[in-house]
Amino acid sequence: MTLTRLFLAALLAAPLGLHAAPDDDAAEMEPDLKAGEVMFRQCALCHGQRGQGILGGKYPRIAGMPEYYLLNALHDYRSGERGYDAMVVVGALQTAEDQDLINLAAYISDIDIELDVPGPEDGSARSGKRTYKSDCKTCHGRKGEGKSRKESPPLRGQYHEYLMRQIALFNSKERIHADDPEDETFVDYDEEDILDLMAFIASLDDQADDEDDDDDEDDDDRD
Ligand code: HEC
Ligand code: HEC
């Protein structure tokens, strides 16, 4: 390798290093479901025996969420990027190794439950649908199922109180939405817009087919 090429290689490697996932090697680690199950007992104290969360959304549902998203979330809590100290302590995440997070994410995403979560009392699913289609669908999927390509979570099957709390955190920048510190997705919505969105999301079927990456698919507006 010539000096110039070495220099170029270093130059190219540096910015890439900054964006490297916390554990590039981890992507190749095999999950140990049994170990994940054992560790999950700590999580069940708050999230419920089956990771179903609790009505009212203080503890979100985590069962059946996609592995990529669970892994990102666990990394964010462990690093403090998402703050909820009680969970990090009781869930023993502070001392968790990358392998532990992989085991947990695999075990939790395998839990198969169906949740029919109630929407807010106020809120029009019909106008929520309009906003959802123009502002959320590209990333969260037509059926609210989440998209691995965007590393976005499913929104269907989640308590609206929890989702609304996250939106408030996004607005106050205590949590970063869509991986973009400048994100302004929610700034122009008033409370009614958010309730409408929640009503629409609650109307989506928790068991709708998973990921459907076809953005161009025709939507029917007849329902
Ligand atoms: C002391 C109670 C508590 C314990 C124990 C706990 N959690 Fe949590 N967890 C919460 C709360 C409350 C939230 C929501 C925090 C917020 O609003 O940001 C949360 C959020 C989460 C989320 C984010 C969900 C989403 O949709 O982004 C994941 C994933 C999660 N917990 C996984 C776990 C795992 C795995 C464990 C066990 C290692 C665990 N939790 C243990 C209380 C707990
Ligand atoms: C550019 C892509 C993008 C768009 C558009 C987008 N989101 Fe997101 N959203 C994401 C990503 C990525 C995350 C996960 C953030 C993380 O990893 O912490 C997320 C997370 C969320 C969460 C937190 C869910 C949880 O389980 O904690 C909520 C709520 C949410 N989005 C609602 C919406 C709504 C409502 C809209 C439309 C008004 C929308 N998003 C538009 C990419 C997007």
Strands, helices and their partners?
Elements: H1 3-19, H2 33-47, H3 67-79, H4 85-90, H5 98-110, H6 125-135, H7 137-140, H8 160-171, H9 191-202
Helix pairs in contact: 2-5, 3-5, 6-9
The structure holds heme C (2 copies).
One heme C (HEC) binds next to helix 7 and helix 8.
Overview of the structural elements:
This protein has helices at about 5-20, 35-45, 65-80, 85-90, 100-110, 125-135, 135-140, 160-170, 190-200. It is mainly alpha-helical and about 220 residues long. It has 2 domains: about 30-110, Cytochrome Bc1 Complex, Chain D, domain 2, CATH 1.10.760; about 125-200, Cytochrome c-like domain (Cytochrome Bc1 Complex, Chain D, domain 2, Orthogonal Bundle). Mean pLDDT is about 85; it is low at about 5-20 and about 215-223. It binds heme C (2 copies). One heme C binds near residues 59, 73, 93 and 165.
Name the CATH architecture of the largest domain. Orthogonal Bundle
Instruction: List the ligand species.
Output: heme C
Strand content: under 5%
The tally of beta strands, per DSSP, is 0
Uncertain residue segments? 6-21, 213-223
Computed Rg: 19 Å
Write the CATH homologous superfamily of the largest domain: Cytochrome c-like domain
The topology string of helices and strands comes to HHHHHHHHH
Tally of individual helices: 9
Largest sheet features: none
What's the number of structural domains?
2
Structural class: mainly alpha
CATH topology of the largest domain: Cytochrome Bc1 Complex, Chain D, domain 2
Distance between the termini: 63 Å
Q: Round the mean pLDDT to the nearest integer and report it.
A: 87
Give the fraction of residues assigned to helices. 40-55%
Choose one word for the global shape.
Answer: globular
Q: CATH top level of the largest domain?
A: Mainly Alpha
